[in-house]
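Ticket #4471: complex job returned nothing on first submit. Input attached below:
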Amino acid sequence: LVSAGNGLFTLLGFMGMYTVLGILFLFLVSREIESGPVMQPAAAH
Amino acid sequence: MPTIWFMIVSVMIAAYVVLDGFDLGAGIIYLGAARTTEERRMILRSIGPVWDGNEVWLLAAGGTLYFAYPQLYASAFSGFYLPLMMVLWLLMLRGIGIELRSHMENTVWQGFFDVVFCLSSALLAIFFGAALGNVIRGVPLGSDGYFFEPLWTNFRLGPSPGILDWYTVMAGVVALVTLTAHGALYVTLKTDGELGRRAKSLALSVWPLQLILTLVSLVATWFVRPSIKENYLTYPIGFLIPLVVFASLGLMLVATRKGRELQAFLASCVYITGMLVGAVFALYPVILPASTDPANNLTIYNSAAGHHGLTVGLVWWTLAMILSVGYFVFVYRMFRGKVRLETESAGSDFGHGDISPDHARKSV
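Support reply: We reran it on our side without changes. The output follows.
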């Protein structure tokens, strides 16, 4: 038996947290794409 | 059968507190014990391959509670709705602090995630302690088996207390100090050098506080819930539990001073288990006491699932536990020994690619 106020508070909390996480995810992914793959030095034969 | 499941749920909760307790404790001492970036990475690496696995014990314990005592689950999860959601946020923030730290080379961001990790670990310890305090003190259960508690009222006890009152706040502080010592002993065990020495001296300096708080909490619990002595008087063998608690507390001090790191850490595990066993021994067969009327208590009998379900579940639980214990033994065996920062190959302080410190050394 959960009150509507508590439900709304936690809904807003989760929305806020996932919004921040989503922005952070996009930022980090775009940075990884911009920096590109790390080239390994060619093995000596 | 309800008694068997009572013991199973208790064991799972104890396993969670002991296992996740040391990585929560490592988080609590994170900013205090680790001064340099390398030392912070060392602490993260010391809990690296195990912290998320340890947290699964909380989910497993919650799932088992739901399976065995659905009435208790429904009542507690609605009555403790807000604090449980806050625990969920703190668990998320803690994971975010650990996982995202190594993705940001910027020192400001790293400092931010360090604070998030440390603060959420400390708050989680306080929340879990306060939750246990609520269960021991009792909640305002109605005759329908449900209750609602505000976060706090006037911090006094009574038939309609808040989630936070002087007793539950004290329980939160006990949990914070206990897990600080537990985490410090774990970091002492897993690291060496200046960090290991600092963690050791932290464990030693927290010890007197832990002793005082253990004594105070026992007296306070006796005062808050006088009925806790009934099971002890009916089954005097229960008095062995406080003896084990104080013996393990003494062993923690002696072993830490003598540099027996593993023994000190195991003594801390026994201390935590002893405290929890002492609480459930006192409560049995009640699993959620009512502060309003003892007739409203939730017990293992009036909140258990059907006999057939519990019997079938025991078979599946046993199989799952064999798999889980096997996995944990394997992981901790692979991860034995001190952690080092001699390899950068994994690119992360907690990646699963460098699960073994020995493996990490060889891969340099």
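Strands of chain B lie at 286-288, 298-299. Closing as resolved unless it happens again.
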